[in-house]
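Ticket #4471: structure output looks truncated?

Reporter: J.K.
Steps to reproduce: submitted the chain below (337 residues) through the standard prediction queue, then opened the result file.
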Amino acid sequence: MADIARIATDSRDDVVATRRVRRAGTVHHGIRRPPPARGSGASPLWARKLGRAMFLVPALVYLALLFAYPLVYNVLLSLRQAGVIGFINDSAKFAGLANYKSALSNPALPTVVVNTAIFLVASLVVQFVIGFGLALFFTRRFPLSGLLRALILVPWLLPGVVTGSILRFMFDTSDGMINQILKDVGIIHTPIQWLSDPHLALVTVVIANIWVGIPFNMLLLHGGIQEIPRELYEAGRVDGAGTFRLFRSITVPMLRPVIAVVLILGFIYTLKAFDIIIVMTGGGPINGSQLLSTWAYTLSFTNLDFGQGAAVGTIMMLISLVCAVIYTRIYRGGEAK
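Returned output as attached by the reporter:
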């Protein structure tokens, strides 16, 4: 009995001691630890949140200086009558929507809009068709397929100024490689004025933009095709479906979100295409290859009407913003699935 009483007393003392230690916060998984010294405890919650927020500061500063400020400044500039002196001295008067009215009533606007529409539609359609074909082609494994895919990406990876300079030399009337090849095979006898003919300049920049945009389409579509489960194609073949039926019933439906993203991003990139056109033709001759992007530059830095140029830039920004909203909705919808 004495032993039982002693054991009960020791157990009670251990329980009391354990409760005291737990109140002090010094027991973790049955191991007793000395209480922490004053000043060495965990940081307060506000300090930890502040530390995390500090990591966002560089990104916020970057976005504010390189994105938010230029966009806001462009919108404000489009509402002012800004010539050279007013632009430099920041003394331009408020003009409201006068710059937008001037841009919309400008005689060059119909030509610019038609050129931009042709440039957009032709570039998007041809880029997508060729890019889709290459994406399907590279789904098959064959020797050097990886090297060929890497080489096709080169035009997209090069800076636009470099690409425009190379293509300008290729399409040059007297010394260009394109005219020389066409002469050698007997297709033409006199050089074609690729860059100086108002009717051919737009065709030339469209060809250049297609060459640059094909790798982008191929890359995204090829990645989308790789994500389609192979079991679907095997089941289709078991049911007797041919290649075209598999493409129509499996590949295209499964790629619809990717196709939408490719077309929307392609539209935005094509709308803002500037460097290739400005290097190859400068928007000429006689506005033959003038697009909204190059026209905004011409109004600002050739005609020195910075307010009207900013108005055209703002209109382009609004169009791109609508496309960005559509892209975001499609992307989120794809993630939800």
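Triage note (M.O.): checked the attachment and the full token line is present. The longest helix spans residues 306-336.
Status: closed, working as intended.
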